Amino acid sequence: MIKVRKYFFSVVICVITYISFSQDLNSLKLALKNANHDTTRCLILKKMYSITTDVKLKMEFNSQRLNISEANLSNKNNENYNFFLKQKAASLGNMASMYKEQREVQLALEYNFKSLKLKEQILDKEGLTFSYNNIGIIYFDIGDIKKALEYYHKSLKMSEEIGNKKQIATCLINIGIIYNQQNNSAEAIECYQKSLKIYEEMDYKIGIISAYINIGNIYTNNKNYQKAFECFDKSIKVQEESGDKNGIATSLNNIGYIYQVQNDFNNAMGYYKKGLLICEETENNFTKAALLINIAYILQKQNKINEAYDYARRAFQLSIKLKMPEKIRDATSSLTNIYKKQNKYKEAFDMYELEIKMRDSINNQENQKATIKKQVQYTYEKKELETKVEQDKKDVIAKQKLKQKENERNYFIVGFGLVAILALFILRGYTQKQKANKIIIEQKYLVEQKQKEILDSIHYAKRIQTALLPSEKYIEKSFNKLRKS
């Protein structure tokens, strides 16, 4: 039996090792088909979910993993019960992430809380840090800053408890973003610098870059351009070490903006065009759109209207393709100014109208966030109220049971007291009776002794009397003798 168990675990370890290194979906499908145990199937499906970018496939793999977990949880005596509970929690967390991507906020929260509940049940502290953080992100996205901070701090506390440095730094970054949004620069920078220190200790380059860029953005907003430049320059060096070309383009755009706000248009243009070359190479369209808008702005300032039009037009077309209202707004604003300078008032008016529509669209998105926030608040306040009512019912029942126990205890005490008192009376009566009996026995003994003494005296007197007086026969005999003589 021991040999079989060792063999089984050896096979599982081999499968896990294979899964860890395999990035080929077809190979994993074959491994899934040949898997003989549900634990192995869950691990393979987890890997398949992580390496595919196809949303439908992700949903399919995650659903299979969830179904396998639930099937094994029907038997609470299953020796791998906690393993499958953890798999179910992870699957529900994945569902939440997919709903978040689809902007189904309420469903995303619902599945995150379902996942959270299971993780709390099995004390999966590492899993809890991610759930708390994910819930915090959703609340941040819908503008519920208070709730976002609450869950970020929960994640931070749990991460510190288990010593998960990477997650600690992530929480600090998220908290820093909120402080920055609330114009609390000092607190935000403190959070970012703490996260930077952790990332540097771990040599986690993506985190280092993120921290530098966030700190640089705060310094830019505070017009501390020298420190901002230093941060962005440091981020570029780390990005070059890690081969992060998209990140380099973003940092170049940030440095270009520092020169732009100081009206150093030549240096600004130099950084913008370097960044644009990288974006065209990597097809980083989001940063590319921003760079095209910035270049068009500088060319307008330099009165190079026709060149500015070319860049602004490219930015407009790319923004339409990206379906990004903010970028469309910025591109149409640039084109409105350019058309005015070209005396093309109809085109300028058309662009201005589109700019207004984009502003309204952005406002509507903000309103939609506010509406979602209210809906979420209503839903969870309702659930909290239902939970409170249910808890109140339980509390009333508990109080009733406690009162009943107290009454039973009091009745027992009173009953016990009465029995004790009765017992004392009985004992007292018995003691008194014993004493009376003892006195009677003693008196009887004395009487008997007196009687014995009297009887003894009588008997003694009788013996004397009997001894002194001759018997009748003797007297008669003696009398007859005298008569004969």
Short description:
With 485 residues, the protein is mainly α. Helix content is 88%, strand content 0%.
Q: How does this structure look, described?
A:
- It is a single chain.
- The protein is mainly alpha-helical and 485 residues long.
- Helices cover 88% and strands 0% of the residues.
- The chain has helices at 2-21, 25-34, 38-51, 55-72, 81-101, 105-121, 125-141, 145-162, 165-181, 185-202, 205-221, 225-242, 245-261, 265-282, 285-301, 305-322, 325-341, 345-468, 472-484.
Average residue pLDDT: 82
Low-confidence stretches: 1-22
**Ends apart, CA distance between termini:** 137 Å
Count of alpha/pi helices: 19
Sheet of most strands: none
Radius of gyration: 49 Å
User: How many strands in all?
Assistant: 0
Assign a percent range to the helix content.
over 70%
- Class by alpha and beta content: mainly alpha
Strand content: under 5%
State the shape. Answer: elongated
What oligomeric state do these chains adopt?
A: single chain
Give the topology string: H per helix, E per strand: HHHHHHHHHHHHHHHHHHH
